[in-house]
Amino acid sequence: MDTDVRFGATWRRVTEFFRLMHSPGELRASDLTEVSGRPGSAEVLATATVCDSLNDPLRRVIVRIREGELAQVSDGKADSHAATWSCDGTRLAYLSAADPRRGHHLCVQGPDGCREIHLPGAAEQCVWAPTGASLLVRVADPGADKAGAEGSGHRPGTAGPANWLPAVDTAATTSPGRSLWLVEAETGATRPVPCGHTVWEVGYAGPDRAVAVVSAGATESDWYRAHLSVIDLDTGVATELYRSERQLGRPTGSPGGAWIAAVEADCSDRGIIAGTLLLFDHNGQPRPVDTGQVQVTATQWLDDRRLAFSGMRGLASVVGVHDLVSGETRELWATEAGLGGLHEPDAYVQPDETVLAAVQQYRKPPAIAHRLAGASTVLVTATHAGTEALRAQIGDCATLSWEAPDGERIEGLFVTPNRPGPHPLIVYLHGGPIWAFRDRWLGSNPIIALLASHGYAVLCPNPRGSSGRGPEFVAPVLGDVGGLDGGDILAGVDRLVDAGPVDPARIGVMGGSYGGYMTAWLVTQDSRFKAAVPVAPVTHWRSLYYTTNIPRFVTNVVRAEPSEAGGVYEARSPLTYVANVRTPCLNVAGALDLCTPATEAHQFHRALLDHGVESALVVYPAEGHGIRTFPATVDYCTRVLDWFTRFMPADAQSGR
To answer: Are the CB atoms for 538 and 598 separated by under 8 Å?
Structure first.
């Protein structure tokens, strides 16, 4: 493989694909998320993803929907997101950064203009008080770790006195944390809320209390053991409300403060949660809400008796509302389309139970729609001049189900190219393992549609461990990594081979994070794969435990301690069985990845070479957990396409 792929035909085709996708240089949204409505008004805001150039990172802007078009609300060329209105609709708050590498600050727009409020760190979350008089802002200290779902790495830090000084870590080392700040909306005055904990997520619980997911420690790993506390905003005193062996998220209180809601689930990454909706009364006693088998991903109080929620049920996105007085739960919108953002469904529900949400499917670009009484209306769409050219080349996507070896029903998405089969197949594996594919524009990652545009079919399975099927579907992967979930994936491949659309002589596999682990694992267990691309992989669970910034994630999924000789740490690590591999592997990593450090990819690459297996190692110096920014994304996609073309070309004759 060439070390520089920037001048080849594949590079040019990949560049054109992303140019059509993003139409860089103008305010054209390639994605729409974080939809919100202005109280007492028909005005709708959202966060749009835009591309200024394929040589620069993507940028987020706050946009207003006006007569079917998008108008920018946030100023200049800043990266801005997380817009939210005060309860009376007079003030708008959002997070903004002229340079995201230096961290976001709070912006508040109101009758007196726009005020920028800078706090001692990077603002990560802002929440309005029920009265609209103040906001809570969660702030990350300089140098704090970013979540894996954000790409890992560090929040902006402070420069040291000299660049030769070593980084020193001892048992006494204090990690940068996350604090809570109160901001007065009218004056912009700020003060810390000294609760004595690291605050991971926060919501108001009445006018003078907050409810937060907190931990005593400040490392990213401490989040996996965080608990729920109620914080007095005057004194900063934090009173523990609930502890769980699982993870907690989406804390929020009813406007009057009588009720608190949170979501409890087994989670892989901070910020991504799909689980059981819990309600806490004034005695602090939790009770689960019957959401009709929906794993809840987002919550919103409509008033003191109604709690709206979004979530997943299988491949479907669902929005509902629970009435605390009657105990009734009603669905407002259930659709096979993808609602909300990349990681999980979310929506904004108005007091009359009109739902506002971003909606999309594989062949339908992101749009913002509202739904009331079973009828949906599209308010604006991200369709632009490049959309039809993309549709003409990306093929189609359908839902697929099959039977696992033990009889369990497994679901997934199957993308087919615009040409007759049997097709070469790429099995694309999601991360987590507790996450799931949903039907989204161009796939959950645009490389899915890019592969289809070059003649490859793509299977996106949701095996055991995936979200949307309840805790009993997640549980089997915990302590059995690469076990039942590996069988689920291979059964899906067998299903497609037996049915005829896939050429058994041209099957490849790729994935990132846990999907990178499964990619490396499967090629040690099965010889059918002609090429593989493990991205940000785990290749040995013990080495990961001792080098990752989230060792508690490792013990959560492996369900064993690394000090135990042998056991699951050896038995379920790809490096243990590397002598079995015959599949050429393109190993990809980011140098800034703290979750699955680049050493995991490096050691697998070295072991493959030692055993005479074709292998390449590509480490991007400015990337973290996954390849996310331009122009690295174009380079990465070019290398992936070249790798599969080399070992299982799409234009080859069928092996049947």
So the answer is: no
Q: Mean pLDDT throughout 1-28?
A: 85
For 80, residues 6+ apart whose C-beta sits below 8 A from its C-beta are 47, 60, 61, 62, 74, 94, 95, 96, 97, 107
- pTM for this entry: 0.95
* More confident: 320 or 421: 320
What is residue 91's DSSP assignment? -
Which pair of structure tokens corresponds to residue 487?
């069988």
The pLDDT of residue 538 is 98
Smallest CA-to-CA distance from 399 within 413, 379, 417, 415 is with 413
Task: Let me know: does 35 contact 41? Beta carbons within 8 Å.
Answer: no
Q: β-strand 190-192 against 198-204: which pairing, if any? A: unpaired
For residue 113, what are the β-bridge partners?
Answer: 110
Measured between alpha carbons, how far is 286 from 277 in angstroms, rounded to an integer?
Answer: 10
**How far apart, in Å, are the Cα atoms of 356 and each of 32, 84, 361, 538, 593?**
12, 14, 17, 39, 35
CA 485 to CA 511: how far, in whole Å? Answer: 14
Instruction: Look at residues 16, 33, 19, 44 and name the one whose alpha carbon lies nearest to residue 80.
Output: 33
CA distance 156 to 321: 39
Helical (H) or strand (E) element with 46: strand 44-50
Number of neighbouring beta carbons within 10 Å of residue 63: 25
Q: Tokens 């989040």 — which residue? A: 223
457-462 and 423-429 strand pairing: parallel
Rounded to whole angstroms, how far apart are CA atoms 116 and 354?
Answer: 32
Q: Is 143 exposed, middle or buried (0-12, 13-18, 19+ CB in 10 A)?
A: middle
Contact 316, 438 (CB under 8 A): no
Structure tokens at 356: 């506002």
85/376 Cα distance (integer angstroms): 24
Strand partners, 589: 619
Closest-CA residue to 467 (of 265, 318, 279):
265
CB atoms within 10 A of CB 566: 8
Confidence (pLDDT) at 159: 53
3-state secondary structure of 217: coil
**Tens digit of pLDDT for each residue in 109-126?**
999 889 999 999 999 999
Band (pLDDT 50/70/90 cuts) for residue 160 is: low
pLDDT for res 242: 97
Non-local (6+) Cβ contacts of 93 within 8 A are 83, 84, 85, 86, 106, 107, 108, 109, 126, 128, 135, 185
Give me the mean pLDDT over the 247-259 stretch: 97
**Which SS3 state, helix, strand or coil, does residue 66 take?**
strand
Closest alpha carbon to 29 in 85, 82, 69: 69
Nearest to 450 by CA among 636, 648, 654: 636
Task: Enumerate residues 6+ apart whose C-beta is below 8 A from 279.
Answer: 259, 260, 261, 286, 287, 288, 289, 307, 324
For the chain, the distance separating the N- and C-terminal CA atoms, rounded to the nearest angstrom, is 29
Question: CA 488 → CA 243, 552, 567, distances in Å?
Answer: 33, 26, 23
Predicted pLDDT at 654: 46
Burial class (CB in 10 A: 0-12, 13-18, 19+), 632: middle
67-101 as b/e, with b when 16 or more CB fall inside 10 Å?
A: eeebeebbeeebbbbbbbbbeeeebbbbbbbeebe
In sequence order, what are the residues at sequence separation of 6 or more whose Cβ sits closer than 8 angstroms to the Cβ of residue 639?
A: 1, 5, 586, 588, 616, 618
Residue appearing with tokens 């805790």: 471
Q: How far apart are CA 145 and CA 153, in angstroms?
A: 6
